[in-house]
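Pyrimidine-nucleoside phosphorylase
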Amino acid sequence: MRMYDIIEKKRDGFELSSDEIDFFISGYCNDSIPDYQASALLMAIFLKGMNERETALLTHAMAQSGDMIDLSEIDGIKVDKHSTGGVGDKTTLVLGPIVAACGIPVAKMSGRGLGHTGGTIDKLEAIPGFNTGITRENFIRNVKEIGIAIAGQTGNLAPADKKIYALRDVTATVNNTALIASSIMSKKLASGAQRIVLDVKTGSGAFMKNLEDSVKLAQAMVRIGENTGRHTVAVVTEMDIPLGKAVGNSLEIIEAIETLKNKGPRDLAQVSFELAARMLELGGKGSFEHCSSLVRHAVESGEALEKMAVLIEKQGGNRAVINDYSLFPRAKYIFEYKSETAGHICSMKTDTIGVASLVLGAGRETKESSIDYAAGIYFHKKTGEKVEKGEVIATLYTNREEKLAEACGLLKQAVELSDARPEEKPLILAYIDAKGVSSY
């Protein structure tokens, strides 16, 4: 078998076989296939596409290229959740303890943030002492003992995806539904879950900027899951404004805890509770309506909050942070960003807000960048709300005083005001499963 022939076949629009896809993945991982031939194939795929069968085979081959997490020691149905990423997206921190409190094991492998989107692992490491690098043995033991563990992804989880994504990033072949879907789902298959709930973001702060593309991506990932034996559903959620009011690691942990106390922002609670109910439904806890009632009970009874406290303690963190937020890292410089005019906030460029948070120190520009856990932005006003001249829109937190002016400049670009109040958009836009698409 020759790589030349595989490139030619896909260039001419023909379907690749399982053996040909496996040959490409194994050869590229062991460096017997050079970058220029891999680039040629990726461009051929970008231009000619892949059908449902090919996409599933590519995903499976990438998942099998490294470690495959075995969760069989854990009793019960293992359900995972994945978000395509956004600004202020802290749903894992809310739904994980809820789902565990309801009796479904949560064995969550999460990633770090890069660029303007935050990572769950970075947020958890804002908790003093919290260890996200626990061994596989401790990870499994914690799930068996307390029903939940959240740890960083192993460095050898779907290494083919990591290598291929780096190449796609520099060859203008990122924005292809089959390649995006296989990239995401390869890591989910390798993580060992039996069933998967996907949170596909859409809007200015998401990778997919419009609903149509987001639904197509969700459908592709659901089909991959079903074709590889993992029952998968997806929810498309709004990311035209930050989720919740907090953007930044410590700030988001605090907001997640407040949500588990039933005091959090309405939008964060709605999306988190929806995803938690979908996870419980896939885990066999009953109808979606019944699962929604289980979610509410877990929060209102305090059981989910206690589960969060136990998770923190079990992974070396100080559980006292649940009630004493002063234990979190604190910023030296706090600045109030005020409105220069009166009006209604008509839009928020969420990706620009994410960059503003990054500038303050809350995110990474490169994988080697360090994070300031105290840095971030807290919004007092969001899209649709009325603002008076001189009223505080957001509070900025940083240890980099010299970056405040730049961050304020970005917020000025991001937050737009108008005389008329904009129409409120729904937060949850669609539900996708093997049967098709349902609008909310």
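thats it. The mean pLDDT is 92. Residues 19 and 214 are 31 Å apart (CA to CA). bye
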